[in-house]
């Protein structure tokens, strides 16, 4: 993977980056330029770009998005051309967004074609993406360095896909976003292997295990489940399992009763992680993975079924099968899965999940030098 580092508020564009365009520089967006940058980022495809840009700035303030992490290529008369925004997330990740082709003349810019498709605009977009990545790859202001830059694009965003590739990002398959609504599925027949145990994090808490000990068990389960994984294998090694676990804990609302650890003879060999998304009235299946030792034994289907029955309020995965509250609203249960992961796609379809969206995930490993 590419390594990115940098510690300057202004990056020069060399002729290869700017193409035929001269007098262009890269810089963090100043407060006075934020509306223009927002219009380029979200408004140029709108019939009312000014209002779209204003709404974006208002939403960014409400969501506490740090707009000092917005970068732009700036031309003559301080005209904002291409824009990239970095939004740091949990687990030392950062999400990247980049401007698309403009539909209309932009101020001092001679022609909208300068902001459209082709080698020149692509190099310029790639340059602002690299600048944004370089800035967050270094710890500053009490914020740790980001280790993984990522973006999620629609397949129709061809210009953005090309620009991220030019910036060093790689595509990690396609992500199918799937949803399941309705009653709980039937539990697969047959008895659970007596050597295999299923414990929720709530069970571990009841047994007196402190958070570091619980984290260590889930980290071990994640590490084992990553062996020969078919789900975005390119991500393996870009972050530590501890960073990944931190990310999983911060998706939606964490509930210890919805996290399960799978062990065989006491050794962590897999897990099922479900988090509530109150704003969407749904539950997200954040992660389901088993080690090679447990694959091919029907445990994935059983584990998924037990989890679904638990959150749908019909049964629990605990020993006494005591009744629990229903936690799924109208949004159902959602998950994202690499379309190349044929066993997982087959498992989710069999459990009643249906695809509702497809995204192109792209990632770049970040490292300081």
Q: How many discrete domains?
A: 2
CATH architecture of the largest domain: 3-Layer(aba) Sandwich
Tell me the number of strands. 14
Task: Describe the main β-sheet briefly.
Answer: 14 strands, mixed
From the helix content, strand content and strand pairing, which structural class follows?
A: alpha+beta
The low-confidence parts are 1-21, 108-113, 314-325
User: What helical percentage do the residues reach?
Assistant: 25-40%
DSSP summary: helix tally: 10
- At the fold tier of CATH, the topology name of the largest domain is Aminopeptidase
Q: Could you tell me the mean pLDDT?
A: 83
Instruction: Please state the CA-atom Rg, rounded to the nearest Å.
Output: 23 Å
Give the CATH H-level superfamily of the largest domain: Gcn5-related N-acetyltransferase (GNAT)
CATH class designation of the largest domain: Alpha Beta
What proportion strand?
15-25%
Give the terminus-to-terminus CA distance: 14 Å
Shape: elongated
From N to C, what is the helix and strand string?
A: EHEHHEEEHEHEEEHHHEEEHEHE
